[in-house]
């Protein structure tokens, strides 16, 4: 299984499945992996933290069944990420990232610990307008940090310059 802390090669290829055909998701994801993707990035949106709705634990579970060796990287763009950690862990996620903007500062470290206690890798995400100081006290706890290059909520956006 992929270890983001010690990958076999860099850079890693981590496509988001947001643009995939949801009617043929397993087949589309299998093709992406066969073309060299290292992991599958699942953009989970709740319609509250961001204005769009996407996928949930059931899709993650279906992908785990169809692609048992795939590394499933779940990106929670949700108002209450703690509520989604256990359902995605049970569904077969390998990694869960959450936005620091969605969690009060005193809840960030415990949420990282909760994710890691479930034998998953934990990631922190920061939005473009958020001061980097908000994430700095926690980066040493996380397995990965993602700095968004777009405002979250929709796929296919141009990068913010």
Structural commentary:
With 161 residues, the chain is of the alpha/beta class. It has one domain (17-147): Alpha-Beta Barrel (TIM Barrel). It is 27% helix and 17% strand. The protein has helices at 25-34, 57-66, 82-91, 105-117; strands at 40-45, 72-77, 95-99, 121-126, 144-147. Strands 1-2-3-4-5 form a five-stranded parallel beta sheet. α2 runs parallel beside α3. The longest helix is centred in the last third of the chain and has 13 residues, at 105-117. It is globular, with a radius of gyration of 15 Å. The mean pLDDT is 89.
Characteristic key phrases:
161 residues, TIM Barrel, five-stranded parallel sheet
Brief summary:
The protein is α/β, with parallel strands linked by helices and 161 residues long.
How are the SSEs placed, and which strands pair?
Elements: H1 25-34, E1 40-45, H2 57-66, E2 72-77, H3 82-91, E3 95-99, H4 105-117, E4 121-126, E5 144-147
Parallel strand pairs: 1-2, 2-3, 3-4, 4-5
Helix pairs in contact: 2-3
CATH topology: TIM Barrel
Number of strands: 5
Query: What does the radius of gyration come to?
Result: 15 Å
**Percent range for β-strand residues:** 15-25%
Query: Given the C-alpha coordinates, what overall shape results?
Result: globular
Helix content: 25-40%
Instruction: Report the major sheet.
Output: 5 strands, parallel
């Amino acid at each position: 299984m992929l270890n983001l802390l010690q990958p076999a090669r860099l850079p890693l290829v981590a496509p988001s499945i947001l643009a995939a055909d949801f009617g043929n998701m397993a087949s589309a994801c299998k093709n992406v992996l066969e073309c060299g993707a290292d992991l599958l990035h699942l953009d989970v949106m709740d319609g509250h933290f961001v204005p769009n709705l996407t996928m949930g634990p059931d899709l993650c579970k279906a992908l785990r069944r169809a692609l048992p060796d795939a590394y499933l990287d779940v990106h929670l763009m949700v108002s209450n990420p703690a509520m989604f950690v256990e359902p995605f862990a049970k569904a077969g996620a390998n990694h869960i990232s959450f936005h620091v903007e969605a969690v009060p500062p005193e809840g960030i470290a415990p949420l990282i610990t909760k994710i890691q206690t479930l034998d998953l890798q934990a990631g922190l995400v920061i939005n473009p307008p958020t001061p980097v100081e908000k994430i700095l006290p926690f980066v040493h706890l996380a397995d990965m940090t993602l700095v968004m290059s777009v405002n979250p909520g929709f796929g296919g956006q141009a990068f913010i310059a």
